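Q: Cupin, please. Structure only.
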Amino acid sequence: MAIPHAQPGDVIDVRPLGPKLAEARSHALFKSADLEVIRLVLQRDERMPPHAVPGEITLQCIEGRIAFTCEAGERELAAGELVHSAGDEIHGLHALEDSSLLLTIALKAAPAS
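A: Structure for Cupin:
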């Protein structure tokens, strides 16, 4: 069953999942013309291979611990820590523990032709 996206003005719970983390899945919380926010769930040793997105991103660790690889090198994030990445920068993730993260993507409109 799909989780509905929040609408403007909706309150979204982004607190740690705690015991529910083991069964949780990643899902988009909302998407607008300029912004997308996703709760990303990675189980221990799960990886997101290196990739790039056109817009800038922030990645905030809500619970657990992850290794974030970017052009500046590998950064370890624990609960309560946030990292920023420039648009078009190649980055990847490796969950060092079961983790949930808040991923924010600044969406860039396609250039006008």
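A: Brief note, in case it's useful. Residues 37 and 104 are 5 Å apart (CA to CA).
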